[in-house]
Amino acid sequence: MADLVRKTDNKNQPILDPKTGLLKLTYFNLLRLAPGEEYRTRVDDIETLYVVQSGQCDIDVGGTLFSAVGGRADIWSGNADSVYATAGAEVRVRAAAGGAELAVAGGACAEKFPPFRVRPDEVEVVEVGSPETHSHRRIFHLLGQNGLGRAGNLLVSELYADAGCWSGYPPHKHDTDTGTTETNHEEVYHYRFNPDNGFGAQLCFQPDGSSKCFMTKSGDTFVLDHGYHPTVASPGHRAYVFTILVGATRRGLVQNFKEEYRYMMSDFPGVADMVNKFK
Fold first, then answer.
1. Which CATH number describes the domain made up of 122-279?
2. Does the predicted model carry a pTM greater than 0.85?
3. What tens digit of pLDDT does each residue of 172-197 get?
4. Strands (E), 109-165
5. How many helices (H) and strands (E) does the chain have?
6. Which DSSP helix (H) or strand (E) runs through 214?
7. Residue 131 scores a pLDDT above 90
């Protein structure tokens, strides 16, 4: 299934939850907290990563306090500061004097791992594509290889694509566990554009030739459990994609690139690095 959830004021309630049926493994929430406002939650059987998109806050995970998390003015102003929360833990977020906005990524997880913080200087960056091929983007891995042995099957990143450029390209899918050539990972994209009136196109097509195409705008969220899924931004508008991947059986992602486009993997700079960083 591929679907688009349009921008809405979710009032700090989950946009995606395995209980809703859109996806079986993936959780996603957006928090907008006024100065000094506190948010409390407990999500059973779901590990989460609290990513500060703007402002600053204190985050308490089951009695472990992480102080002054965040600090960037907005998503376009530097690396994120994040906190990993144990599945089923009591989480308390208190915004600082300027308020705070957070994206919360989650995935089904039966194991318990201690909470930890991923500071901005710990974020790993991969450059992919080039302006000449209209595919240049930078992927900032917030919870990637740094989560090995410290988290379950949740992978979280922030992707920044140049204006008019493609991402998720060359086309690939990850909906079948083959052991070596492909893994089964659900995926969620949450989009923003700069300037904010930008838009994009999100494609999804299947091996049998069936396809869907969505027009994406700032604040929209794309959900995917199978199919090839390239996306493109409108010229003149940079794209931001908050990306959540949750593995059905394993943590590391193996992308299966569509056979007739595999030759492009060597034509586009950084694709091999991108593939390796998700493993």
1. 2.60.120.10
2. yes
3. 999 999 989 999 999 999 999 999 99
4. 116-118, 124-128, 137-143, 154-161
5. 2, 20
6. strand 211-217
7. yes
